[in-house]
Amino acid sequence: MAEVRWLDEQEQRAWRALQFMQLRLTGRLAADVAATSDLSYPDYLVLVALSDRAEGRARLFELAEALGWERSRVSHQVTRMTARGLLRKERCDGDRRGAFVVITAPGRKAIEAAAPHHVATVRRLFIDSLTRSELDAITSAAEKVLAVLDAETADGHGGGARGAAPPRG
């Protein structure tokens, strides 16, 4: 077994700050979406991922890649959202076993109603507390880490869904 390269003080501080920031932000955003809309945070993320696409539709594996989720998690989430009328499935003519996940009119209405408050919360908790250069540094760092994750996933070392860019908003 290779020798462990333990984190030094600076590395540990950066890593833990990132972890706790992400955990707390996600928890706060999830609670906020649930309190101000009829959506759960996973509902919101799926609707954002689909509404970002011109036709509002994606194959299940594409949705899993966009969200960085396992296909089974996406499948269960889509089933729940389909039952509530937020999404529907359409047959894929090119692949008889495949289907598209499509945002419905009620799904669009739900995301359009939830998004302004969510974006205001993101701005208040994250964007407005940082300078433009700090935002650029975070963007650069995140894109580098995402590139490593994508490369490892492509090489078979990822163990999960390949995460492209995270959903906006």
Explained architecture:
This protein is mainly alpha-helical and 169 residues long. Helices cover 62% and strands 11% of the residues. The protein is built from six helices and three strands; from the N terminus they run ααβααββαα. It has helices spanning 9-36, 41-51, 60-67, 71-83, 105-125, 132-154; strands at residues 57-59, 87-92, 95-103. It has a three-stranded antiparallel sheet with strand order 1-3-2. Strand 2 and strand 3 form a beta hairpin. Helix 1 (9-36) crosses helix 5, helix 2 (41-51) crosses helix 5 and helix 3 (60-67) packs across helix 4. The longest helix has 28 residues, at 9-36. The model is unreliable at 160-168 (pLDDT under 50).
Compute the number of strand runs. Answer: 3
**Main pleated-sheet profile:** 3 strands, antiparallel
Helix-residue proportion: 55-70%
Q: Mind telling me the C-alpha Rg?
A: 18 Å
Beginning-to-end CA distance, first to last residue: 42 Å
Strand neighbour order, sheet with most strands: 1-3-2
Order of helices and strands: HHEHHEEHH
- Report the portion of residues in β strands: 5-15%
How many helices? The count is 6
Question: What are the low-pLDDT stretches, counting only 5+ consecutive residues below 50?
Answer: 160-168
Shape: globular
Mean pLDDT equals 91
Features:
single chain; 169 residues; mainly alpha; 3-stranded antiparallel β-sheet; 6 helices; 3 strands; globular; disordered C terminus
Summarize the structure.
The chain has 169 residues and is mainly α. It is 62% helix and 11% strand. The radius of gyration is 18 Å and the shape is globular.
